[in-house]
Structure formats: C-alpha cells, structure tokens
TrEMBL record, chains A, B:
Species for this entry: Pholiota conissans
Residue span of region Disordered: 22-44, 66-91, 405-452
Family the entry assigns: Belongs to the AB hydrolase superfamily. MetX family.
Record-level GO BP terms: cysteine biosynthetic process from serine; homoserine metabolic process; methionine biosynthetic process
Protein name, per record: Homoserine acetyltransferase
Compositionally biased spans, kind Low complexity: 410-425
Segments traversing the membrane: none
GO MF entry, a single one: homoserine O-acetyltransferase activity
Listed InterPro entries: AB_hydrolase_1, AB_hydrolase_fold, HAT_MetX-like
C-alpha cells in the first residue's frame, strides 16, 4: 500500500483498534463519552483509558507509514517516531571512544566501546583551565542551552550564557548525555557490536561512576586535564561528587544541587514504583521492543508517578487547589448549562457529575506530563539510569567494595590509579566535629552511616564544595542535603558552602529558581 | 475434564502461559533466572515481571477448576478466588435496606436499595446511649476486631475490647463496611437489580456523605438515635466529620484520627496515580471483569504506590536502610560463593550483580505488600472509594452546592431535614479568632479556604471533637490536621482536643501506635 493510502487509512485503523479494545471488554455498548448524571446509570466510557489505545493505534499507523516510506524515503518525513529512535548528530557533537569502558558491576565484561553526545558553550581558554563539566538529571539530554547547531531552548537555558549564573564569557561549559541514556550516548537503545541489534536489557547495569569515567575520557580527548568546576543537579549532583571522588586532582570545585551522596530507601521506593509500572507494560517485552511499539502506556504511568516526586503539595495547593479541569464538549449536560465550570466540583453541581477519569486540574496536569514524556524518552534508559541512582552510595564500606579504580589523590597524573582500598587513601578516620564551626555546628545525634559517609567522601576534603537543597523536595530531601554537607565537614572539608532554599517547587526548584539557585552558583564559581 | 485432571494439568497451563509470554517478547532465549555478572552479557530474565504471568496462570487454572467444580460442588473448596467474590455473611451481620438511597452526585437516580455489612462489640445499653460508630479507612472491612463469628484478629484488634482504648465493657461498638466496598456492603461487585449482573462501573459515584447516610439507616434499624461518639481513622476521619455535619443532634463526640476535612491536591495526585495504573491493566476492561480475571497486576502496582503513601522515609531509613533483599538460590554465583549477602549491594560485590528487578529490601517489601493485597480487594471498590475521598470537601461553598439534605440542627428529630443552604443553618460567619486561646493561638496567615472550612464545619461547633494527626504522615499531612482543628475553633467550637504525634510510621500510625493513639482516644471518650 502506498504511503498516502496508508495515511488515509490511519484513522480507520485507529477506530478499528479502539472499537476492538472496547468490545473486548465484554461491557455494555459504550454510551456518552464521560460518566454523566442521569435518571438511570448509563454505560460508562473512559476517555482517560481509551487514550492509551488511541496512542497505540496512532503509533502503529505511523510505524506502518515509516516502514512503507523506507522503501521510498521522504527526507521531510520526521513522523511521530520517538526522537531517541532517530538520533540527530547534527545537533550535538559525538565523541566515540573505541576502547572498552570497565564497568563497576561487571568487572569481567567492560562495555566494548561507547559514544558520548555532548554540547559546549563559551570558549575554551588557551590554558584549558576554564572548563565547567555540567551533569544532568535522569532524563535530560546534553542540550542544556541553545547552540548554533540547535537553537531550541535547553533544559537550563536561563542559567547558562553570557552574564548568566554560569557565565559563558568566562567559562567553557560542557554538558553530556550520560552513558545509559538515549540522546546520542551509548545506552540500551544503541546497537550491540556483537549482535548488530539494539542492546535492550542485554545492556549491562551501569553506575554513576561509570557515567563519570566515560565523561573523563571525553575530557581527555579534548586535552582538558583539570575542571574549573564539576556542577550537577539531581542525579547530576551525584555525578559531581563522584567525579571529585574518582579524580580529586582534576576537579577544582564541586557543586551538588539537590543531589545526594547516598540514595535513601524512600527515593528507591519511588523509583521502584516507576520501574514496576513500566516493566509491567506488555509492550516492554523484557526490554526487547525496538522492532515493535515502545511501552508508551507504562512510560506515561511512570512519568505521572515521577512528576509527583518532582513537585510538592504546597505548590499544588497554590497552583491547582481543588479546581476542576476545564469542561469539554463531551461534559455538556443540557439540564444545567449555565453553571460555570471553573468552580470546585461540588460547586459545579449537576453541570458535570464526577467520574473515575480525571476531574481535578491536578489530575489533568499529571496526565499531561505523562502524555508529553511517554514517547520522548527510551523506557530502558529510564530503567537503567534510575537503577544507577538507586545504587549510588558514597559511604566508605560501599565504595571500598566497588570493583572500580580511581586515580591516586594528589598524584597529578590521570593515568596512575589505585583501587578504592580505604586505609591507604584516607588514613584519618573523620572526627565528628572536624571543620564544623559556630555557624555550622556538627549534627546532633548523627545517624550511624554519617561517619561512613564522611570517611567515604574524605578524598573530597580539599575541594571547595557547594551543597544546595530545597526544603520542599520530597525526592532528594533537605535532610539528605544536610547529610552531604555534614559528611564533607566531618571528613575535614573546611570550604563547604551550604544553602537551603524555601519555596514550594520541590525537587524541580533547580530548573525554575534562577534567582536563588543561579545566584548561589554564580557566587560559588566566582 | 474432571476437576482432579484439571488440578494435575494446572502446572502445565502455568508453564505454557509463561513460556508463551516470554517467547512473545521475541527476546533471546531466557538465560539464568536473574541478571548475572559474567564475562559476556547474558540474556536477562525478569522474575519480578514474570510473577504477573505466573499469577495470571494460577488464577486461570483455579478459575477453570472452580467452573468445573461448580457442576460438582465441593463445599470444602475455598480455593484461591478473591474473598470479595465469595462474601461470607456468616462472619458478619448484614442490614438490608429495601428502599432507595439518594446519592450526592446523582440527584435523580438513587441507589435502588443496599446492604450494609457490620459487626459489633460490647453490649448495647438499655437506653441505647453507649454506641460508638467506627468508620474505616479505604480498604478495611467491618472486621475491626475478632468476634465469636470471626475469631481472626481485626484491623484495630489492639484498640477495641474490654479495658482497651475503646472499652467494650462500657461501649457498644459498631463497625461497617462502607457503601462502595466489597466486604458485604453494596458496591460495584454487587448485583445490579435492573440487570441481574454485577454493577461494574455502571455503579454510581458515591460520596463520603452517601456512605454515612447508609450507616445512619443501619442505626435507625437498631433504634439507635444518638451516638455516644463517631470515631474514624483516615477516610474514617472524613466520615466522622461528615456524620456530625449531617446529623449534629445525633452525634455526641467526634474523633478524627489522621483524617481531613478537605482532600488536598497532593493526596488526589497520589490516588490518581493508583487509579491510573489500575485502569490501564488490560484485565480491568472498563470495570466489567467479574466474569473473567481481575486486574491483579494493576492492583499490585496500585498497592505498591499506596504503600509508599502509608509509611514514611524515616521509618524505611531505620527499618530497611540500604539493605539488600535476601539471596535466593537463583542468585548464586559460584565465582564468589563466600561473600555474605546481608551487606549493602556494593559490599556484596561480585556475589550478586544488581538487576532491574528488586535488589533492595525496600523494593521486596513494596512488592510483597502489592502481592498480598492484589487479590484481597475489588479493583472497582478501590476506584470508587478513592474517588469519594478525593471529592470530600467541607468548605462552605462546596457543601452548599451538594444536592444532599441534612437534618435540622438541634431539632431533636431525625426525620425533619433541610437543604444545605448556608445562611439559615449557620448565620454567623466565623471569626478568625473565635474559640482560640493562648494554648491554641489562631493560625498566622490562614489560607483563604480556612474561613470557608470554618463556615462549612460550623454545624459541628457544639460537639466535642478530637483531632489527632501525625507529623510524618505524607498522605493526610499534619498541616491538614491543624487545618481541621483551626477551622473547628474558628467556627466556634471550644472543645477541640488536638494532638500531633511524632514517630516515623507516617499515615499508618493509627494502626500501630496503641499507646499514643489509643491513649488519646481513651482520654477523649471518658
């Protein structure tokens, strides 16, 4: 069938699939498009559930289209395929590392080789001493800000540029897509050299340290020996700390924004819930879905859960309260057409009876966030990177059990290395009161693991470090921010800058609060 | 096929289904039962995902068995069918109300009739003045404590009995399963009179007020005019407040434990996430699954999310920390057999490589909670009751828009009624400072809705009220507890007892902390 014919057929395919799905439920024939108040209980329908089947049909139709089109390729057909399925290396740079990358959790099976997608802003100084390596959160690409290659706004557009918090008049900023990701760096959607097919879940478990070591190979290729600063937000905060632990002599300053040095069980729980709904999607197929449809429903559900952890209740109180979603034509009830919709559900009274699908604005907000994300990001990348976050733990016993090698502190050479054995590299067990002052008193009743964390992070003791957290963050809680600052100080670091922000934006504050987050970074970097 | 033959065949059915599911993924042939560290990346398998297919096969096999058995019934066959599919009215009492129940959101279509399952403890006094009506949380049955009919421990076993916090030497305690539930009261799994089939999602949306009015019909049938107290936890706290609002002259005292007077957007968000994963389960079939398999996977995933909201991060820090799940035989890696498993994952090093399925104890805990619940409770009941909680809002504008009628305050008659019109029943707009004292100062910068809430709850102003909340509760936050107490006081209630508990148990504290929750209740009731 020709492509135009398929195009014309797509709506029928969609309807056919939807009808098949609805009739397969053996339910009464569908009635009006939402549950309505009426004198008898009508057969309900569920647009919020049907949306999954509609999306599936749309993807199937476009997949058929692109299969048909591949015989007769149309260069203008950008289609609705997921962006990660069509990497666009003209919008970023790619460093190809042709040698194996040792992996933390697979000591006998390195990654055979890898690509790192990256973008840069500003100008590298002749001495190559003005480099800021920027680490991303879970799902971000290397596109932190607009570039000539890609003029679209980046995820940290307001923070990076001439005169901005990370001033590109002064600094040369590098941001990468992490190993395990799907925006140009090697990850589970990449081709496995041994098979010529996508890795899928044959891709090895990677660690935050693996991500960072891949980044340092990129730095090596650019001749950058020492970073002016390692800066990261969320998972990037973990990378920022990990970079300094692996290469203390190559990191001039550390900024950890809403990160942690040790994932908490509650953060693990929230990521576990996301992985569980994603892996339960029949389209996930144990991670081998690249020749069929992606688990878009599982991704949508996972993103809804994630969004809850990224924001905060107080924000939603202010932003949404108990407001209803806007009325749609299918909500119209002619018995009470004059009742305004913008009131609480009970105000609206009989104008629209509540339903099991979304009634409140907060619900449509979460629905929308899930819908926007579900085809933008590779499901397996979400699984692998969220797992890497769970595994992150900088306590001394955890670090010393890792099968990774780090460069010798203060050796001045990036090639010499030693294992993470504790006694040689940090002989002094940290004191509870080391480096605390009147303005930063030592914690009262420190938990048992804090001393282990102090010992684990002792290699960072000579590096000025910014730790910034947000009191309304429920994912990387403010207690964890205090923990990082306390552990660094207990480990002997006397140059820890620590800020706690108020506000209602929760974990996402680092994306939003240019004034306060940006201000702290600017002050710390100068 | 005979029942024994089917029994013998069940394991084959299970394996066949599982193999079919695994091969349908078009993945490489399954390798070892968990991801392992090895010299090459082996084909992974996912026991945590396969568990859903295993459960499905087990249910299918038992359904075939019970279908076969129904021709030749075996009275001892209690089988693995969901308990709600086999109501057992010999373990509780049932009140049948043969008349229609008006519904808040369906003013023109009452529930044709209904059953209420209930249990009692203690002895009704001759004057019938020692009755405590106990309201449950979302998924609880009427079985709050053991009875001669059902000696199994109840969900509040430690709180109810002779000499306990709710002293059955003194009080006659009634607990019901709510309308919308699945433990003997009329709900979506009940038979719809008009069709002779289960209601499914043709069941109307019910409100907290509808639940309470059904309970008062039960009280009427018992000749109980006035409650000594209305006591409830979680959703039961909502009911407790709603009972007093509907019938202020019939409620002597109110206890709201970890409840709220107005569901917050963040609580709506967390319940929305649960409903979304449940409704996305293909087995849900728009709610018409009663002649096939229930959406057990969606229920498991929903319960995992719910469990996160019922407990707290600090508890998990203490209880699980970053401990690994116990090793299983499938984890064994002969290359490092001597490394102890009970360390953090990184300690365990090569003994067990991390996987995408659960590694940490917190994950297996959530998995287990989901698995335990997924066949115990009806999926549609979860949807309807969680929706009723979302809709609950006792602000004056919300209440006055409801199409329900409440009895006239202080009329002394349960039959006379008036609509929820505001000006007639509570003419005095509450003052910001009414009934506050030095020990209970009025809130600083009260949010706009607090005055609306005070006005809405003004009918409760003469009823002594206990409000108890928990600082680590993330579902019914401590701010919401303060809101209830503040609004009652602003509405003129001078007998509000208010307690905040510390501790790490979060929302579930009301099930666990017998000393403090029980003590406050005992003191308040005496």
């Amino acid at each position: 069938m020709s492509s135009p014919a398929l195009l014309r057929r797509a709506p029928q395919l969609l309807r056919a699939s939807l009808v098949a799905r609805l009739s397969s439920s053996k339910s009464p024939a569908p009635g009006p498009s939402t549950q309505k108040s009426s004198a008898s209980f009508s057969a309900p329908s569920f647009p919020c559930v049907d949306a999954h089947a509609v999306r599936e049909s749309r993807l199937l139709a476009s997949k058929n289209l692109s299969t048909a089109a591949s015989a007769d390729p149309d260069p203008c057909d950008t289609g609705p395929e997921p962006p990660y399925a069509r990497p666009n290396p003209t919008s970023y740079h790619v460093y190809h590392h042709p040698h194996p990358l040792p992996l933390t959790y697979h000591p006998h099976a390195p990654l055979p080789n890898f690509d790192i997608a990256y973008e840069t802003w500003g100008t590298l100084s002749p001495a190559k001493d003005n480099v800021i390596l920027l680490h991303t959160g879970l799902s971000a690409s290397s596109h932190a800000a607009s570039t000539p290659l890609n003029p679209a706004p980046g995820w940290w557009e307001a923070f990076i540029g001439p005169g901005k918090a990370i001033d590109t008049n002064q600094f040369f900023v590098i941001c990468t897509n992490v190993i395990g990701g799907c925006y140009g760096s090697t990850g589970p959607s990449s081709i496995e050299p041994a098979t010529g097919k996508p890795w899928g879940t044959r891709f090895p478990i990677v660690s935050i340290f693996d991500m960072v070591r891949a980044q340092f190979h990129l730095l090596d290729s650019m001749g950058v020996h020492r970073l002016y600063a390692s800066v990261g937000c969320s998972m990037g905060g973990m990378q920022s700390l990990a970079a300094a632990w692996l290469h203390p002599e190559r990191v001039g300053k550390i900024a950890s924004i809403s990160g942690t040095a040790r994932s908490s069980p509650s953060a693990v729980a929230m990521r576990f819930a996301q992985r569980s709904v994603l892996m339960a999607d029949p389209n996930w197929k144990n991670g081998f879905y690249y020749d069929s449809l992606p688990p878009h429903t599982g991704m949508k559900l996972a993103r809804q859960i994630a969004t809850i952890t990224y924001r905060s209740g107080p924000e939603w109180d202010l932003r949404f309260g108990r407001q209803l979603r806007p009325m749609t034509t299918s909500d119209t009830d002619t018995s009470a057409p004059d009742i305004p919709p913008a009131l609480s559900l009970t105000h609206a009274g009989p104008a629209r009876a509540p339903a099991l699908c979304p009634d409140f604005l907060i619900e449509t907000y979460l629905d929308h966030q899930g819908e926007q994300f579900c085809l933008k990001y590779d499901a397996n990348s979400l699984l692998y990177i969220s797992k890497a976050m769970d595994l992150f733990d900088m306590t001394h016993p955890a670090l010393s059990a890792l099968s990774i090698r780090r460069s010798r502190p203060h050796s001045g050479s990036s090639t010499s290395s030693e294992s993470a054995e504790p006694s040689s590299s940090h002989p002094h067990k940290p004191s509870h009161k080391t480096s605390h002052s009147k303005s930063h008193p030592p914690p009262v009743n420190p938990p048992a693991h804090l001393s282990d964390l102090a010992q684990g992070m002792a290699p960072l003791k000579d590096i000025p470090t910014l730790v910034l957290g947000v009191q309304s963050d429920i994912l990387f809680t403010v207690e964890q921010q205090r923990e990082v600052a306390d552990a660094l100080r207990m480990g002997g670091n006397e140059r820890v800058s620590y800020y706690e922000l108020g506000g209602v934006w929760g974990h996402d504050t680092f994306l939003i609060d240019v004034l306060n987050v940006g201000g702290a970074i600017r002050g710390f970097l100068s």
